[in-house]
Design brief:
Chain A is built from ten helices and 17 strands. By secondary structure, chain A is of the alpha+beta class. Chain A folds into three domains: 211 residues, Multidrug efflux transporter AcrB transmembrane fold, CATH 1.20.1640; 74 residues, Alpha-Beta Plaits; 165 residues, Gyrase A, domain 2 (2-Layer Sandwich), CATH 3.30.1360. Chain B is an alpha+beta fold. Chain B has two domains: 209 residues, Up-down Bundle (Multidrug efflux transporter AcrB transmembrane fold); 76 residues, Alpha-Beta Plaits, CATH 3.30.70. Chain B is 70% helix and 10% strand. The two termini of chain B are 27 Å apart. Classes of the chains: A alpha+beta, B alpha+beta. Chains A and B meet through helix 4, strand 16, helix 7, helix 8 and helix 9 of A and helix 4, strand 4, helix 5, helix 7 and helix 8 of B. Strand 16 of chain A pairs antiparallel with strand 4 of chain B.
Chain lengths: 483, 302
Amino acid sequence: MTRLYTHRLLPILLLIALTVWIDLPHPDPVRIGNVERTIDVVRGLDLQGGLQVLMEADLPPGATVRTEDLQTARNIIENRVNGLGVSEPVVLVAGNNRILVELPGIGDTEQAVATIRQTALLEFVELERADLALVGIPGAIRTDFGLGTTENASVAETPTTTPAAASTPTGEAAAAESTPETPQPTAQVFTSDRILHTVMTGADLAEALVTQDEVGNLGVSFDLTERGAQVFGDYTSAHVGDLLGIVLDGTLISAPVINQPITEGHGIITGQFTPEEANGLAVQLRFGRLPVPLRVVESKSVGPTLGEDSLRKSALAGVIGLAVVTSFMGLYYRLPGLIADAALLVYALLTFAVFKLIPVTLTLPGIAGFVLSIGVAVDANVLIFERMKEELRSGRTVEQAIELGFSRAWPSIRDSNLSTLITCAILYWFGSAFGASLVKGFSLTLALGVMASLFTAISVTRTFLHVVLDNLRQAARPRWFGI
Amino acid sequence: MLNIVGKRYWFFGLSLLLIVPGMAALSIWGLPLAIDFTGGSLLEVRFEGAQPPAPAQVVDLYLELGFGEPVVQSAAQDEIVARSRTLDETERAALVRAMQEHFGGAVTVLRFESVGPAVGAEVTRRAAGAVGLAALGILAYITYAFRTVPGAYRYGLAAIVAMLHDVAVVLGVAAILGHFFGWEVDALFLTALLTIIGFSVHDTIVVFDRIRENQRLHRRLDYELLVNHSIVQTLDRSINTQLTVMLTLLALLLFGGVTTRRFVTVLLIGILSGTYSSIFNAAPLLVVWHKREWRRWFGRGA
């Protein structure tokens, strides 16, 4: 018996060690193998201040918006938002015609809304090898187009999105090869000190598609307008072997090498693309501007002071709540109560670790959901202990009472928690469809809390209880169980 | 042994006593819906280094700018909350600039929310849908979980009745608090309401589960006695769980931030009502149904 439960204790202790490690502050990203990510609490807008904007497709009545278009618009907005220099912005498709943008810690909300709704600018620019370090850094590229000094470029009034005859580029079309190695991003943030020359803007691009050659390598083919073909032909003829930068809203998104002149008005960008990358590039080329017009239907902003204050107070309330509940459990249920307290602590550590790992955006209602789930976690233990007391009173031994307590309390624990999870699922769906992130945060934390509480109440409490009984013979007296 | 089921009509009466005034308040004053549901803008600002303006001055400023007539309240000493028609970011900026010019000092925007009227209407519709869906999901689950018991759907329906009881109590309280203290029914309130629904059913199921178990063990026992027995057996658990949830909520209420205070209060009321309704309404209701007591109601004149 002793062996059995000590055996079970080991994985639990390992789990505790792991959660403690995750719960400790990790200011720097953690690297395991070649996966690198940050382990940190993501605070919601209501806790750190910021702006939340809900936008809706602005279409004539009766018209429906395509899911792909909405997704594309989301990607483009995400790019723009990244240019604002906000830490951890959130851009989500909400429901079937809305996009939710959350910008934590933003001060100038008027400017932010303007940036989100602006028309994006796609440019093809002259590039030097040294500029490769700027790939993917938001807003790092400055071009002469914005300064109005170029003659070649034209204003991107309406980049045509009418699909040109879907001609698959043929072999004789020029091919440009994307630089094989992507430069490693360094800690230092670069900005081009030179002003780069804009060859052509997105207005002269007719169509961009993902293609595949005979050996299965992915590429992005593009067709140019007549004028674009002229400009591009002249430029590429004179710059074979040079780099061509593709810049979206000041961010260098790709830098292929010009392998041969592109005079026919279509070409292919090849390279080591994954399907996602190829598709992403095609989408960015095609839709420099938003594929659907959007209007703001809801905006909420919270000042940073209010958020900071709320966070401190809620955390304090959580700690006090936990302390009061553990004291109550210890006083009322004695030995099992204390063990449940230990399990509750494991529960709190575990839930917090899950929050950090997923990561769950912590909002005020989210914290309330977490604190409330402490109550749920206790409930499972209370159900079991009350059952144990009943079995003890009816004359069973402590060992029997424990087993019966767990097995007989289980159906009600299962059924009651499942009904809470059903409610959580419906709330989550409701929150997602409206961009009501507060409701969503609450249901997610409550659901995770319920699941974690099921695990700790059943496995952790039970193992702890058995281990204590196995090693402390005189503990097997009903008196220790509050009888 | 405590006879709870025997006094069931007293407990139903107590429930009515709680629900009727709330429902009356609801039908007279309506629900104090926040801009989340009605659409509109809410601006909360703090004035520092100068005398904060009187609400009437703020109303005049809105009218002067052509932003319609707002409802303005003083929140804390140097803070005001203004609710108006839907304003966009440009209008908000203009408004804050105008406040700075008119009232002097530093104007800090603590909170600005703007909801289009169409979105508000849709949120209301979907919220009702979400509550309905939750009820259906729970009814289906209970009917499934109690499939071995004769008349399983009764358990589901009794749980739903208890749940509606709690919804009625909370909505009534909201209408009363809204009228006297300016509380609002917003997205957070809705979250609280849905949590209460979840907890109410959670509590009810624990009692029902015991009835299910006892029905297997004591096949001969009279149903009324059996139900009462089950309630008493789970009473310790109901009280203790209630107590721990109450304690955590009280901690949130006393030490938590201002933002969640109303949310937590609503939860407290609702969860208290949820425990009451599962013990004193849901389970006794099963007995009423079992005995088809409604046939006697009018004969007795009760």
